[in-house]
Specification:
Largest sheet: 4 strands, antiparallel
Structural class: mainly beta
Bound molecules: FE2/S2 (inorganic) cluster
Number of helices: 0
Strand content: 35-45%
Number of strands: 7
Radius of gyration: 11 Å
Oligomer: single chain
Strand order of the largest sheet: 4-5-6-7
Length: about 80
């Protein structure tokens, strides 16, 4: 039950999954493991982004890269 603009990391079938409802109310599920070196991202509620604590990569709710060093998007996860 996520409000628009909220995100949380949950474990789905043993995998850390980043779940976020965007401003339009659409739910996105992507792997929570940063595509740079695999750290688990955290939700930045001020910016509605997934931020990696290790080297500062940032991702959009749908997993797109907003800021490197990561170059690949977060991996989509099937519902
Ligand atoms: Fe995420 Fe390096 S592991 S930025």
């Amino acid at each position: 039950d996520l409000a628009p603009g909220d995100g949380v990391v949950v474990h789905v079938r043993g995998k850390a999954t980043a779940v976020c409802r965007d401003g339009d109310g659409e739910l996105h599920r992507v792997s929570a493991h940063c595509t740079h070196q695999g750290c688990v991202v955290g939700f930045n509620s001020a910016e509605a982004t997934w931020d990696c604590p290790c080297h500062g990569s940032r991702f959009a709710p749908d997993g797109r890269v907003l800021q490197g060093p990561a170059v690949d998007p977060l991996t989509p996860v099937d519902p």
